[in-house]
Recover the amino acids of this structure.
């Protein structure tokens, strides 16, 4: 019960097959069809619609296996920035609806659920679900309970498009009796085996087990889960979205190569993509790390600490170049490259003239502004470094041209 005499509980809201639903928001043609969202370079399915799931396609499956099971499927390259746009819209709506909201993942939120006289938690769950559907266009499932762990179990069990509140002991017992203990986040593999040796295989078994035994088997984190599934909320709702510790760009090189010119072109491409990300999250990189993976299975790392955190192309490229020299193995065939920004800091810290003469800084910032404005207006990579000209296939690819639609601050369908 809250101070104002309102009843409180904990809610969990989770989008249903989020990446697919996000694609459907901007293309209704995909509704009711089997849709798979593909990872970097289109090698594997990272999300699938319920229609595709029904045909046996699994998350993480290579595209060629998925296409055997579901030849009629529509396979789309993932677009995390679009998903982030929708995720932020959902977060804003959640914050309107609740005073405490935790951004748990791109499509999952925990929140404090409150109802006044004459209202029910079930009604609140339904209205939240419908509001997100109406304003964002994404189907979600909502569970409300006495603790986070129970709320998540309820929403997981009510998918898709469910809205359910369980707050009474009998209802909780029925819910827990039906669910294997591995449905609880944080109980899998060895921990599940340890429990099963004591006959604890369902969530209800765990709730009824001796607390000291659970602590012995699963340490303090397991005991916390025991309290949680018994309706005692011991895990708080964390309202601050954790800041990114690192940001990275890269992935498969498509066609493996031992040509240093091509590797340099990839490096420049990844620097440009990383800068987009840094600017989006309003941070600057204090350190760059480059990882190159080779066909032989080994990988090499190059790294550089910057004199000052930066999100500027000239500065980051100056730092990335020696990283590539360090990570490059002459004659070896590279398959993947990852460029990682670390020690992230707020941008725009006072520049030290010694490292960064003002005329050079002003020119570079002016160029960056022009580039950003043109690309914002015309499309990603409309203006890009000439070093990337060695990768014509990447920029001419129809799947990448799709990215041009992906202009920040605009709704493009
Ligand atoms: Mg989800």
């Amino acid at each position: 019960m809250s101070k104002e005499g309102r009843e409180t509980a904990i809610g969990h809201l989770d989008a249903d097959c989020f990446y697919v639903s996000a694609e459907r928001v901007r293309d209704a043609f995909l509704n009711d069809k089997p849709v798979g969202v593909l990872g970097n370079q289109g090698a594997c399915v990272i999300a699938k619609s319920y229609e595709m799931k029904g045909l046996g396609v699994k998350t993480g499956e290579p595209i060629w296996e998925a296409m055997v099971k579901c030849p009629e499927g529509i396979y789309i390259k993932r677009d995390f920035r679009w998903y982030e746009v929708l995720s932020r819209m959902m977060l804003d709506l959640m914050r309107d609806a609740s005073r405490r909201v935790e951004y748990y993942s791109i499509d999952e939120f925990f929140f404090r659920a409150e109802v006044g006289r004459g209202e029910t938690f079930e009604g609140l769950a339904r209205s939240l679900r419908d509001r997100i559907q109406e304003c964002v266009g994404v189907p979600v499932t909502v569970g409300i309970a006495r603790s986070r762990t129970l709320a998540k179990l309820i929403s997981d069990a009510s998918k898709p498009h469910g809205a359910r509140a369980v707050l009474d002991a009998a209802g909780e017992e029925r819910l827990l009796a039906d669910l294997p203990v591995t449905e609880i986040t944080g109980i899998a593999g060895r921990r599940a085996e340890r429990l099963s040796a004591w006959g604890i295989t369902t969530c209800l078994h765990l709730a009824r087990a001796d607390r000291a035994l659970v602590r012995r088997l699963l340490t303090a984190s397991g005991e916390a889960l025991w309290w949680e599934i018994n309706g005692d909320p011991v895990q708080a709702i964390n309202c601050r979205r954790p800041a990114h510790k690192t940001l990275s760009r890269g992935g498969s090189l498509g066609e493996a190569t031992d040509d240093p010119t091509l590797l340099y072109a990839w490096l420049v491409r990844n620097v440009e993509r990383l800068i987009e990300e840094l600017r989006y999250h309003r941070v600057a990189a204090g350190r760059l790390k480059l990882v190159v993976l080779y066909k032989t299975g080994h990988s090499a790392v190059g790294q550089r600490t910057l004199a000052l955190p930066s999100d500027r192309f000239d500065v980051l490229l100056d730092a990335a170049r020696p990283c590539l020299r360090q990570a490059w193995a002459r004659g070896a065939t590279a398959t993947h490259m990852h460029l990682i920004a670390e020690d992230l800091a707020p941008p725009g810290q006072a520049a030290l003239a010694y490292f960064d003469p003002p005329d050079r800084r002003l020119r570079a910032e002016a160029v960056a502004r022009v580039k950003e404005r043109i690309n914002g207006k015309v499309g990603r990579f409309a203006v890009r470094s000439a070093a990337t000209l060695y990768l014509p296939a990447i920029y001419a690819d129809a799947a990448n041209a799709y990215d041009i639609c992906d202009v920040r601050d605009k709704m493009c369908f």
About this structure: Residues 14-15, 18, 107-108 surround magnesium ion (CB under 6 Å). The mean pLDDT is 89.
